[in-house]
């Protein structure tokens, strides 16, 4: 097992009380596997990614365990953690325009990472930066271009090239296709597939997305998040064919290809979660029990679990 | 060619740059441009008016004023550039640390800056030079002692806004150390606005150096420094005004050229102004 998250809680203190952005998350990620984390905006997906790399603001209270290769990342001293970032676990952010430094050319930004982490000499670092750009589909002659000179798709490719610079074993991609044209999205999905499944040994990836199409195309397994909790997990095909949690079903039904059926109501405030099952106010199948008893995860098959009494 | 592209249609930037290049050339090639030795005293030729042999006339010791103005460029320009560079680098470093780390370090640095900003700077400079004795080193020290705080304040403000941007988070996510993030990501983005400030400060510093030298606390006679030349000429102001006019013109022109360059640079480097120009 590459990554094992146990009972991860991330709370933010606010004037109105604690915001429970992640509330007891358990996740497992195997080597060479792509795990999709799907859910609507505000379900805590991004916070989970930031918690793994410990990039949350200092105001966040984090508890639980994030075991990476048996080592608890949450307990590492900052200096050790810094060595994990980039080299072991690398992040690809959404919105590459703001995530790229406008004052440095893309080649410089990749070369800097290589020099800082791998101690490469200037020339070797530039050479490698050119190779990484080629790998992600940017002609190496563009090495001296600045982020503002590139298109959205190119910027995302450059971001991926930077993320791959130190050959990490785990990529965390946070909405990598957000804000891109559909045709470009396909290219980025193909690129992400190539740099994970296409290398040997295959690289693992945690793909955070709200785009079910992207999740279906890329992931081996899927975890569905709702209001800070994982409500269903399983093999991607299994979850798509046989969604057992009412929320998963609602999420799939809301996809345009399935008729664009909207779920009633809004996702709950993370400060005042409904008692019992967080989804019960919106759930068609909810009964009395759901309103006061929080459901636990039930295993309903090989590697398929659901947080629902009536799954 | 890029330079031409940038300066096209920007008269201030172009004029400022040309004047500064002119002053730089004067400073570098002073021995070839000056027709006489600037320290060559010839009593029989004292206080000659501007004319064929002496372009700007001669001073009270019979020295050629044109040669002295040309050599004076070296002192005024290079002292000002040295002082401003030290201030800029020191202020940028301290300000980045304060802005980036925040908390107690920030509080401590900024309170020191506040205290220093409360000092009237020319008086502190007078004190420093007065106590340590007039020399070029002490002149630099006097102008750096308070000069860096302005840059610290501005850099801190810039860093506070830059450090919230996405690419700083991305650099952290890739395992960048604090030092690396400050040096490679924060400073390159904070530098352009500071450069404008520094260019405008060069002219200010030229004036301060001239003022201190005029008061006898900066560069000492017989060194051909413009402020010191003004001081030497003040006894002849009514009888032979050319002794003061030419160094005065040199000071004014150099100050003007740096102001033009600073204003011009601000227009080029300000992204909003740039967009307007491109449209």
UniProtKB/TrEMBL annotation, chain A:
EC identifiers of the protein: 7.2.2.11
Name listed for the protein in its UniProt record: Nickel import system ATP-binding protein NikD
Localization, UniProt: Cell membrane
SMART domains to which the protein is assigned, alphabetical: AAA (SM00382)
Lineage of source species: Bacteria, Bacillati, Bacillota, Clostridia, Eubacteriales
GO cellular component labels: plasma membrane
An annotated GO BP: peptide transport
Assembly, per entry: The complex is composed of two ATP-binding proteins (NikD and NikE), two transmembrane proteins (NikB and NikC) and a solute-binding protein (NikA).
Keywords: ATP-binding, Cell membrane, Ion transport, Membrane, Nickel, Nickel transport, Nucleotide-binding, Translocase, Transport
Family annotation (Gene3D superfamilies): P-loop containing nucleotide triphosphate hydrolases
Record organism: Desulfofundulus thermosubterraneus DSM 16057
GO molecular function, one term: ABC-type nickel transporter activity
């Amino acid at each position: 097992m590459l990554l094992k998250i146990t009972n991860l809680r991330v709370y933010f203190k606010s004037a109105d009380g604690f915001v429970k952005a992640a509330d007891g998350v358990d996740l497992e990620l195997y080597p060479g596997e792509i795990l999709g984390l799907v859910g609507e905006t505000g379900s805590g997906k991004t916070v989970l990614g930031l918690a793994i790399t410990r990039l949350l603001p200092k105001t966040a209270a984090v508890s639980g365990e994030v075991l990476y290769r048996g080592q608890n990342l949450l307990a590492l001293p900052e200096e050790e953690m810094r060595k994990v970032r980039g080299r072991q676990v690398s992040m690809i952010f959404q919105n590459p325009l703001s995530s790229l430094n406008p004052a440095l050319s893309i080649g410089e930004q990749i070369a800097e990472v290589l020099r800082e982490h791998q101690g490469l000499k200037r020339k070797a670092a530039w050479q490698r930066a050119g190779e990484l750009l080629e790998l992600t589909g940017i002609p190496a002659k563009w090495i001296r271009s600045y982020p503002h000179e590139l298109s959205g798709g190119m910027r995302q490719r450059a971001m991926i090239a930077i993320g791959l610079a130190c050959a990490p074993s785990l990529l965390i991609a946070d909405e990598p296709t957000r804000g891109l044209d559909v045709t470009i999205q396909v290219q980025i999905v193909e690129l992400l597939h190539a740099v994970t499944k296409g290398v040997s040994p295959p690289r693992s990836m945690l793909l955070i997305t709200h785009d079910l199409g992207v999740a279906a195309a890329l992931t081996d397994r899927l975890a569905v998040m709702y209001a800070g909790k994982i409500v269903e997990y399983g093999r991607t095909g299994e979850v798509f064919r046989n969604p057992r949690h009412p929320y998963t079903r609602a999420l799939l039904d809301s996809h345009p290809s399935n008729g664009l059926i909207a779920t009633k109501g809004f996702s709950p405030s993370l400060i005042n979660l409904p008692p019992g099952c967080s989804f019960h106010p919106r759930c068609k199948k909810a009964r009395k029990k759901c309103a006061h008893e929080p459901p636990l995860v039930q295993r309903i098959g090989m590697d398929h679990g659901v947080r629902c009494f009536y799954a | 060619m890029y330079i031409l592209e940038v300066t096209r249609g920007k008269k201030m930037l172009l004029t400022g740059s040309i004047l500064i290049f002119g002053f730089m050339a004067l400073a570098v090639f002073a021995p070839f441009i000056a027709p006489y030795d600037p320290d060559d005293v010839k009593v029989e030729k004292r206080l000659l008016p501007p004319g064929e042999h002496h372009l700007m006339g001669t001073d009270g010791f019979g020295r050629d004023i044109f040669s002295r103005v040309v050599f004076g460029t070296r002192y005024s320009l290079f002292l000002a550039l040295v002082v401003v560079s030290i201030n800029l680098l020191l202020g940028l470093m301290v300000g980045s640390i304060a802005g980036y780390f925040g908390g107690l370090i920030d509080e401590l640095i900024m309170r020191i800056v506040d205290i220093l900003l409360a000092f009237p700077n020319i008086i502190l400079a007078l004190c420093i030079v007065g106590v340590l004795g007039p020399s070029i080193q002490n002149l630099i020290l006097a102008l750096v002692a308070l000069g860096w705080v302005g840059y610290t304040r501005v850099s801190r403000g810039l860093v506070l806004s830059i450090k919230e941007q996405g690419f700083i988070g991305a650099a952290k996510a890739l395992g960048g150390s604090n030092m690396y993030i400050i040096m490679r990501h924060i400073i390159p983005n904070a530098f352009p606005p500071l450069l404008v400030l520094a260019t405008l400060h060069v002219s200010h510093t030229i004036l301060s150096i001239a003022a201190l030298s005029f008061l006898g606390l900066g560069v000492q006679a017989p060194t051909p420094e413009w402020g010191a030349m003004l001081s030497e000429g003040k006894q002849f102001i009514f009888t032979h005004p050319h002794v003061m006019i030419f160094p005065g013109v040199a000071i004014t022109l150099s100050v003007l050229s740096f102001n033009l360059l600073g204003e011009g640079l601000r227009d080029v480097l300000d992204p909003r102004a740039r967009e307007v120009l491109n449209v």
